[in-house]
DNA sequence: TCCGACCGATACCCGTGCGGTATCGGCCAG
DNA sequence: CTGGCCGATACCGCACGGGTATCGGTCGGA
């Protein structure tokens, strides 16, 4: 199977529309139709049910969409890591650590400090990324190690070690009535008048519908909270970054958040192994 | 990156010889040279150091060999699983379980029996394979679930659950002086006169050098043992399959063998999940 | 009921690029 | 110094991918 055919099929399966998929791929529609039916002929499997009004996935098509995405990720990972290996042996660039921007700041600082103190430590490039981006970055080879947070991030197919587990707090405007409580429950936060939950961008950049404000980063978020426009549930450790115009109140029934360090399962990099070892000693 | 170029590069990196690699791929040598240097140009990375007498891998080339193998496995897995998904929804064929031929026979029988008793159980095709083949079969999508044995099999990149842990025994001809012992150590078995360790075939079918007899399966092996030509160290559970012309003696310092059930980390198959659940209940 | 819009498939043409053969250039052995 | 080995280069023919034009089928609205 060819990557081209697979990329084409994934685009069609995503869009369920040959025209839009062709546009996304930057080609015309007829070659796309041809390539997909050629793939079906090669596999001997019907992947899509087409009518002139709708395109739907068959069971086999759903499998290929899922498995094919992994395979394309693996291809991209091979390419990225090869490029980075070449850059590394040319002397510039070290290993890349991906972490959600604004998360586990203190832990990250301690980790980088401890790592730098090791003899023969490889330089670490920190890649601050959006929510739930660390896993894909690892899987596509754009990063060598990542810090991620269960149960939010998906670790399937990655090797991990646990670093810390913590409860969650809700961050509220300091003047708000709820801020006076010693503890809260998720039910108390579901429909607070005037404090809707914020809306984060999806991977494709669009925002879900809802009443809350659209946010892109933590600075923006904290400002919106201090303005009394929204609230925010996050792990305990965000407290270290809060100023006194906002208040953190424990949420007793929020799921525990486990911070883990993760790497691709077949990693052979000694540098990654050393960094993980350092992290586990913290 | 194209699968064709990657397959070509992997072949050259394996053989470290363009001519042999071309032969293995079934093409002439010049297109192969061209494809590999085109890949290098596309990546902007030197993968091979060539002289007219020898070809060696660069660091980046070693990375691409490793990562590229994984990526090609993933591509093949996508293809295989799609084909099998189509066959499954056509009604024929169930999930494929890979297990080393002759290993954990009793456990396998219990598992299959328990699974068959479940309501709505999917049929299970058992794929008996050679040593250390289960991992690759899972990774290339030829199997959905496998039983493997630590520390012999490589589980990197697979999700696993432990089933049982057991010690090892040495299987000896019943008349042999060592057979009278209650327990033995690995050191006692290293150089037993007249009883060299058997030689198993490598994945490519060739045999390593050594004094022991070449063996291909357990029947052959047991026959050679009863003939007094070799001995064999294996997990406790092989005892169930022994006849009285051979004797099993515990090896006290042999590594413990853990039997695990494994599946690809991103498996979404409910049938696999059900089989794993059944296995854990045993 | 019919027309128009939408959507995927088909027909046909053109250019890129893959694979083949022939040959070159460098390197070690005898 | 020469023959043999090995990878690179040169050149050619054809298959295949991508483009435009068009068809066939289906739904919605007048």
Automatic annotation (TrEMBL), chains A, B:
Keywords: DNA-binding, Transcription, Transcription regulation
A single cellular component GO annotation: protein-DNA complex
A single MF term (Gene Ontology): DNA-binding transcription factor activity
Domain HTH lysR-type: 1-58
Keyword set includes DNA-binding: yes
Presence of keyword Metal-binding: no
Pfam families, per the entry: HTH_1, LysR_substrate
InterPro entries reported for this sequence: LysR_HTH_N, LysR_subst-bd, WH-like_DNA-bd_sf, WH_DNA-bd_sf
Domain of life: Bacteria
Family designation: Belongs to the LysR transcriptional regulatory family.
Protein name: LysR family transcriptional regulator
